[in-house]
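Render this sequence as a predicted structure.
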Amino acid sequence: MVQTPYRPPEPSDEKPRSPTTVFLKWLAICGVSAGPSFVFALGLTTGVSPIDEILGMLAGIFCFVLAYTFAELRPATQRLMSDRRIRLTARIGYGIRVAMSIAFPISMFVDLWIGLISVGITSSFHTAGEPPGGFLWHFVTTIVQGILLNIVLLALMLFIYVIVLAVYRNPPAPASNKKLPVN
């Protein structure tokens, strides 16, 4: 049988996970991934109420946990993730992101620059004369930074996907058990 790129992906051998399991997975991934930025931002909290600023950052991180949980539980996402090449790409991409966060100095480079861009974006909308701070400003800055980091992660995953496609192709369909005639 001829291999064709139009053949649908093979069904996934993974069992569906409960919403609680999916939520806990994304809580761990987002929590670890946000760690370097969170630690860096803690050093910069200078507002009247640092608790409000910390809660703003935590609320922003929690929004990403909920968004990822909701996205993974959608039937369209489950169909997409049934393709083992896409599943492998996602695992490698998020694995790299978590590993970079654990290897703290490495992630600080990426997180620091994207964090500075995020602060620049959100500060441009802030009232002149007042220093940025408080719950809402930190929440919005965290959301902007998370979106920018996800764009970078998506670009990384697209690069990974090209490699996965080249290396990890769908195997041809199983051959039929019919015996070929002997001439």
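Summary. The first helix runs from residue 19 to 42. The helical segments are 19-42, 50-73, 75-81, 84-102, 104-123, 134-167.
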